[in-house]
Design a protein that fits this description.
Length: 231
């Protein structure tokens, strides 16, 4: 049963919280359902799982339209400016804002729909991987200041996709760096900037991420099993 795998992740989060002196209620597990069928989402939903993540706009939109029950959708993958309009009013949180240009488009589409604000995270690339999206840590603060000026966009924290490594300990430094950056930014008390969410940690490394302060982890394989991209 899928819920058993989900509960195993939950148990591991609880243990990681105990090691770090944290409250497990401060960690939200996002079930990353990309490539997985609606039936699997439904199965988890029936067991009271509410947060699901998708990395592609098209897939999120399709699933959103086919599902009639309430789900909190998280867009966790790269978002192109021209696709903002398809999801801006369908998601609980956009994790992957990495430019002022993109944030301005979100602001514009939200205003059009008379949405008060769209909650977003700022994606930062701590390992400086060329293959990954995200801001360089040193440019993050300035970009945040600019985005904070937008009326319909609300910054809620930071997100990172850490490198794929065999030993999750290798990513600890990047998780720690993100926590530190969020504290630094929080201490500056910018208007309209909230640093309460740290979205970091995937199947391979979420326990380390939780030890370092993650408040949202994004787990796909660890809940749904391996993905098959060929179907
Ligand atoms: C696919 C994906 C995940 C989940 O990856 P797993 O290793 O299967 O847990 C998390 N975050 C993002 C941005 C993803 O695209």
């Amino acid at each position: 049963m899928l819920i058993d795998q989900y509960n195993q992740v939950k148990e591991n989060v609880k243990k990681a919280c105990e090691r770090a002196g944290r409250d497990p209620r401060d960690v939200t597990i996002i079930a990353v359902s990309k490539t997985k069928p609606l039936e699997m989402i439904e199965e988890l939903r029936k067991a009271k799982v509410k947060d699901f993540g998708e990395n592609k706009v098209q897939e999120l939109k399709e699933k959103y339209e086919k599902i009639s029950w309430p789900v909190r959708w998280h867009l966790i993958g790269h978002l192109q400016t021209n696709k903002v309009k398809y999801i801006v009013d369908k998601v609980a949180l956009i994790h992957s804002v990495d430019s002022v240009h993109l944030a301005k488009q979100i602001d514009k589409e939200a205003a059009k729909r008379q949405m008060k604000e769209v909650p977003v995270l700022i994606q930062v690339n701590f390992a400086h991987e060329d293959t990954k999206f995200g801001l360089a840590p040193e440019e993050t603060e300035n970009v945040i200041k600019e985005i904070a000026a937008l009326e319909h966009v609300k910054i809620k924290g930071l997100m990172q996709i850490a490198p794929f490594v065999d030993d999750p300990e290798e990513n600890r430094k990047y998780f720690r760096a993100m926590k530190q950056l969020s504290v630094d930014i929080k201490n500056k008390n910018f208007d309209n900037v909230d640093m309460s969410i740290l979205s970091m940690g995937m199947t391979n490394d979420y326990e380390v991420a939780v030890e370092e302060g993650a408040t949202m982890i994004r787990v796909g394989t660890g809940i749904f099993g391996e993905r098959n991209y060929s179907i």
